[in-house]
UniProtKB/TrEMBL annotation:
It comes from the Bacteria. InterPro entries: AAA+_ATPase, ABC_tran_C, ABC_transporter-like_ATP-bd, ABC_transporter-like_CS, ABCF_ATPase, P-loop_NTPase, Val-tRNA_synth_C_sf. Keywords: ATP-binding, Nucleotide-binding. The keyword Ligase does not apply. Residues 7-216, 283-510 form the ABC transporter domain. This is ABC-F family ATP-binding cassette domain-containing protein. Residues 499-529 are annotated as: Disordered. SMART domains: AAA (SM00382). Residues 511-529 have a biased composition (Low complexity). GO terms for molecular function: ATP binding.
């Protein structure tokens, strides 16, 4: 017997003064659904969720909520006006005797219900809004980036709570581990269309690539058909004009179909420039400690950071992660101990508070108003890694369009603000990157690119993040700060840290970083031979990379096999030849890496 959907959207269309965001959109949310809502930044995820919640009225279409079904919506910027404390806001609307639900959620999400709204941070306000929704326990929860501003412990609590609920939920999140754990279906927004797959986020990237591959094949077939029909029209249309007007009209229809297809948004053209090489020793801290009044942030701690290290700092909010980084980079002084900075350091900082962005400036002004980026005498150009570039062209590298260049920063989504901050950061050479929560609000594709860029970066990276998957992909060392002033160094990323943490006795003295004179613990061994988590992940992804390279090499070889290519288009031939050589070299390296990891896994 078919279940009655909790929510039905039928033929929804919505336009904000330009191209349609959605046109003819239909979807259902079933009882007990656990749905990941995914798509590029700016694709309309939050807008669609607001439509589902009834906060945005579509231009056309019908929204049907089944009789008696309650819904709850957690937005990214909750309005707490009219409430004195966070607890007052979170308890609003609850029946007598249900206050305990807010207290339980407040403990798990780590906020004080007695905190006055007037002094609460943005993160505390969001946690109160999330607690309010969980306490109300609606049959359908609409959650827009619920893990932003949560530390890893609170994310774990929320994961466990949502895994046990009987309610249906639709979830927007950049946190891969969170999505993989919780979701059983995926809604994918892509160029105004919404597709559904009855698999959780675990299968999303495979599904996306297969969909795009099929789309590319169909487009290529259409292009070939258009070329064939156009050749027929040019060569013999005058002799067959009267008999074949239908075919001519069909050619026009084919061309109209091709021009109406919406091109996929490209990947941001991001790049880091490591600039001058720093000294081998980047930072050496000896016996540093810090306290604010009676609160101990850091007990005596030693650490040596060397060029090329990728160090992640993890722990609860307020444990002192950012404070420790500021001591290591010389921004604040320790109470005791010494910090010796290395030579030739150029430090670039990604600030999670987005303090470098003025909400009243336009995107144009945000770049040209930076003295480190300004080109002398030119109001329309910025200095990008030592070279002048037109400000609009540089913004386009980060997927902003012409109209957004003159828009205020406040009009941007969270993901767009993160991209603008990355644009500022990447314009200048650096050899020490401080990344404080860089993953918040970024879409999966941009996270993938950022991960790859950090992997290729020649300098040193200090990373604060609550994104477990991102830490696993980037970090080779993890420093755990657990709120008691004690910092402990572990080899590897988040999963390696989890595997090792039970082996460290509470009374063991703090160790130095892995490259510091043999003080490191060995990376945790995985179930597969002697591979660390990072190596195991690399071994799993290499076959797909090798297959893709082989397919690209085959296509390039086929393209260059045309005997007329060199004579008719030598530039294309030379470009294809260079691309072929490059891919062959990358393929050889990938195969060699795969063989080495397989041998290591075999013991």
């Amino acid at each position: 017997m078919a279940r009655t959907p909790l929510l039905q959207l039928s033929e929804i269309s919505l336009t904000y003064g330009g191209d349609p965001i959605f046109d003819g959109l239909s979807l259902n949310v079933q009882p007990g659904d656990r749905v990941a809502l995914v798509g590029r930044n700016g694709s309309g995820k939050s807008t669609l969720m607001k439509v589902m919640a009834g906060f945005v009225e579509p231009d056309r279409g019908e929204i049907v909520l089944s009789a008696g079904v309650s819904t709850g919506y957690m937005e990214q910027d909750p309005d707490l006006a009219g409430f004195e404390t966070l607890g007052d806001f979170a308890r609003d609307g609850l029946e007598l005797g249900e206050d305990y639900r807010v207290d339980m959620a407040a403990e798990g999400l780590k906020f004080d219900p007695d905190r006055p709204v007037a002094t609460a941070s943005g993160g505390e306000r969001r946690r109160a809004a999330l607690a309010r929704l969980l306490a109300q326990a609606p049959e359908l929860m609409l959650l827009d980036e619920p893990t932003n501003h949560l530390d890893i412990e609170a994310i774990g609590w929320l994961e466990e709570h949502l895994s046990q609920t009987r309610a249906g939920f639709v979830l927007i999140s950049h946190d891969r581990a969170f999505l993989r754990r919780l979701t059983k279906a995926t809604l994918w927004i892509d160029r105004g269309a919404v597709r559904r797959q009855e698999r959780g986020f675990e299968g999303f990237e495979e599904w996306r690539e297969a969909t795009w591959s099929a789309e590319d094949d169909a487009r290529h077939k259409l292009d070939r058909k258009i070329k064939a029909e156009a050749r027929w029209a040019v060569e013999g249309i005058s002799a067959r004009r009267k008999r074949n007007q239908g075919r001519v009209r069909a050619l026009a229809d084919l061309r109209a179909e091709r021009s109406s297809q919406i091109r996929r948004q490209g990947t941001a053209a991001m790049a880091f420039d490591s600039g001058t090489t720093s000294g081998k020793r980047v930072v050496e801290a000896r016996g540093i400690s810090k306290a604010f009044g009676d609160k101990v942030i850091l007990r005596p701690f030693d650490l040596r950071i060397q060029r090329g290290d990728r160090i992640a700092f993890v722990g609860p909010n307020g444990a002192g992660k950012t404070t420790l980084i500021k001591m290591l980079t010389g921004e604040i002084a320790p109470d005791e101990g010494t910090v010796q900075m290395g030579t030739n350091l150029d430090i670039a900082v990604f600030d999670q508070a987005r303090a470098a962005l003025n909400p009243d400036q336009t995107l144009w002004e945000s770049l040209t108003g930076d003295p480190d980026m300004r080109v002398s005498g030119r109001a329309d150009q910025v200095m990008v890694r030592g070279q002048p570039k037109h400000v609009v062209a540089y913004l386009k590298d980060f997927l902003f369009d012409d109209a957004q260049a003159r828009a205020p920063v406040r009009s941007l989504s969270g993901g767009e603000k993160a991209r603008l901050l990355l644009a500022r950061l990447m314009a200048r050479p650096s050899n020490l990157l401080v990344m404080d929560e860089p993953t918040n609000d970024l879409d999966v594709e941009t996270l993938d690119l950022l991960q790859d860029l950090l992997g290729e970066y020649d300098g040193t990276v200090l990373l604060v993040s609550h994104d477990r998957d991102f830490i696993d992909r980037v970090a080779d060392t993890t420093i755990a700060m657990e709120g008691d002033g004690r910092a402990t160094v572990y080899a590897g990323g988040w999963s390696d840290y989890q595997a090792q943490r039970g082996e460290t006795p509470p009374e063991e003295p703090v160790a130095s970083a892995p490259r510091a004179a043999g003080a490191a613990s060995a990376p945790a061994k995985s179930a597969k031979g002697g591979l660390s988590f990072t190596e195991r992940h690399r071994l799993e992804e290499l076959p797909a990379l090798i297959a893709r390279l082989e397919a690209e090499i085959a296509k390039l070889t086929e393209f260059m096999a045309d005997p007329q290519l060199f004579a008719t288009s030598p530039a294309k031939f030379n470009k294809a030849s260079m691309a072929l050589s490059e891919r062959q070299a990358v393929l050889a390296d990938a195969e060699e890496e795969w063989m080495g990891l397989e041998e290591k896994a075999a013991g």
